[in-house]
Structures are given as structure tokens and as C-alpha cells.
Amino acid sequence: MSRPFRRKQPEQAYQKRGEDVQMIRQITGEYLYYEKGAVVIQTSGGIGFRVFVPELSPLLNTREGETISVYTHMAVKEDSISLYGFPDRDSLQLFQQLISVNGVGPKAAMSILSLGTVNRVKSYIAAKDGKSLAKAQGVGKKSAERIILELSDKISPLPEGEAGIPDTEASDMPAVTSQRSEAIVALTTLGYTRKEAEDAISHVPEEDLSAEEYIKKALKYLL
């Protein structure tokens, strides 16, 4: 007697596909423009890929028309396929470790990576600093605690000199809260370059300010 055929539920099928299939692992091409948290890269074949990147990623220092290369993670859902891009394999690996934690999706992982350098984020996790992790947009206290519980024994910060930014420099950088990130994006829409916006915001002392207040203080430095 044959067994009855059981069809997979769509959500399960797509979730499995997203875990197993990583067809696009790296993209190199011309940087076209930045929009809503993503860069658009046109390959030599004329295909334009929209790739989400963390706020303050060094990839955003690329100018329009320049060649850009990103390591990517492809997230497949039932109704969408999204690409997330990173400047190096270490950043990509940390992203993938974060989304392996139950309840942490790609958007939350990108917010965490927007807190600072990869080494800084690793330091938060290794030191079990849930308060700093919870500053990321969309990451609450419970999610931060879950990340620490599942990853603190698996992650170690890079030795000084091997990280993208030396530890001494990273320690002097203010943590990038969601309000600061929003302010940086807003300044770029006003015509300032990404580097100018980041530099101006870095001169604003880290306080409990709204994005609008950060913008006002940063403009005083720029004008």
C-alpha cells in the first residue's frame, strides 16, 4: 500500500530553499546609486542588482560610476528574493551567524551591523553587552539576550590590526544608533556626500536625541 503524498507547506518550502540556495555569492560592477538602505550595482552584462547594505558600511563611500565589489547573502522568501551585501567575508559571516539566531531576521541583523565596525559588534556579543546590542533598530532586550546566549561562545573579536578598523580607533567611534543613521541618510538627501554626513554626525556628542536634533547639530558643523 502506497503512502499518501504530503505536500510541503509553501512557507516551509521557501524557507528551506532560502537556507540551501546561495546562487549569488559576490557581485562586481558599476555603482549606480543609493536608495532606501540599498546600493544598485550594474554588472558588465547590464543587469542592475539592488543590494541592501548596513548603514555606515565602507561600501557607501563608493562614488557613482566607480567599480564596487560586494560579498552577498541571498534571502529567499515566499514572495520575495533579497540580496544583502558586505565589503568582506568577515562581515558576511557575522551577518549569517546573526540570522541563525531564532527570531533575528535580515533587517535586525543589518541594524546590528550598523552599530559600528564588525569588531565592535563582535566585542558586544563576546562581552555579553546586551544593552549595546539593543540600541539597534528593531532589536529589543529579549532578542539581544538570545543573540548573546547563542553566539557569545562562538564569536571572538579579531586581534588588533586584523580588523577593518583598529580597536583603538573603533573604541573612539560613537555607537551608531538608529537616530544617528537616519540623520546621516537625511544629510545625504540634502546634497552632502556620505563621508561629509558621517563626519558631521561623528562630531555630535552621543545623546538621547531625535534624528531631527542630530541633523540640526550636524548642520552647524557643516555650514
From TrEMBL:
Top-level lineage group: Bacteria
UniProt keyword DNA-binding present: yes
UniProt keyword terms in alphabetical order: Cytoplasm, DNA damage, DNA recombination, DNA repair, DNA-binding, Hydrolase
Name of a matching Pfam family: HHH_5
Residue segments, region Domain III: 177-223
Residue ranges annotated for the Helix-hairpin-helix DNA-binding motif class domain, each copy included: 96-115, 131-150
Gene Ontology CC annotations of this record: cytoplasm; Holliday junction helicase complex; Holliday junction resolvase complex
Subcellular location: Cytoplasm
GO BP, one annotated term: DNA recombination
GO MF term (any one): four-way junction DNA binding
Keyword Oxidoreductase: no
Protein purpose: The RuvA-RuvB-RuvC complex processes Holliday junction (HJ) DNA during genetic recombination and DNA repair, while the RuvA-RuvB complex plays an important role in the rescue of blocked DNA replication forks via replication fork reversal (RFR). RuvA specifically binds to HJ cruciform DNA, conferring on it an open structure. The RuvB hexamer acts as an ATP-dependent pump, pulling dsDNA into and through the RuvAB complex. HJ branch migration allows RuvC to scan DNA until it finds its consensus sequence, where it cleaves and resolves the cruciform DNA.
Subunit structure of this chain's protein: Homotetramer. Forms an RuvA(8)-RuvB(12)-Holliday junction (HJ) complex. HJ DNA is sandwiched between 2 RuvA tetramers; dsDNA enters through RuvA and exits via RuvB. An RuvB hexamer assembles on each DNA strand where it exits the tetramer. Each RuvB hexamer is contacted by two RuvA subunits (via domain III) on 2 adjacent RuvB subunits; this complex drives branch migration. In the full resolvosome a probable DNA-RuvA(4)-RuvB(12)-RuvC(2) complex forms which resolves the HJ.
Family membership noted in the UniProt record: Belongs to the RuvA family.
Record note on domains: Has three domains with a flexible linker between the domains II and III and assumes an 'L' shape. Domain III is highly mobile and contacts RuvB.
Protein name: Holliday junction branch migration complex subunit RuvA
Lineage, broadest ranks: Bacteria, Bacillati, Bacillota, Clostridia, Peptostreptococcales
